[in-house]
Specification:
The protein has a five-stranded parallel sheet. It has one domain: Divalent-metal-dependent TIM barrel enzymes (TIM Barrel). The chain is globular, with a radius of gyration of 17 Å. It is an alpha/beta fold. Helix content is 33%, strand content 17%. The protein has five helices and five strands, in the order αβαβαβαβαβ. β4, α5 and β5 form a beta-alpha-beta unit.
Amino acid sequence: MRLAGVLAISILIVVAVFGQDSSVRGAEAESCWPFFVFDNGLRGIADPPKLLRELGFAGMGASGLKIADLVKQYQAAGLKVFSTYVGCQIDQTPPYDPLFRDAVRELQGSGVILWLTVRGGNYGKEDDKAVAIVREIADLAEPWDVRVALYPHTGFYVATTASPRRPN
């Protein structure tokens, strides 16, 4: 039952993030519900944009910060990079890659959303620190119109969609 609830909330988040954005158009211009591949499903494929276009996908979700050239490659193929999976580590200094500053600037206007994982720390006991780090990353992204979405992952500090709602 709990898994079904988490799945339902996750689907609603995807709908809320992508459902209203008319700039999100891929291989099928009429669809407002983009269907895209996470990059771990593209390993070993010679020309991923070509294959994704042939299969009717709207684009892909990437990993990492250095993706500006990848975004251009997919745009040239008429596809979109919808997201990039990145992380911060609340028990490290610095807590996130210094490349964030340049990466968000390079992503301006691309529509790429940073899927941010929050790892490390003493689960549930360092919420203020985690919030400060997430806000700092969001503040880096905001001037360049790059959005940040928390990406819950089992075993991480933000492990579920309910994790950010813990009472302080």
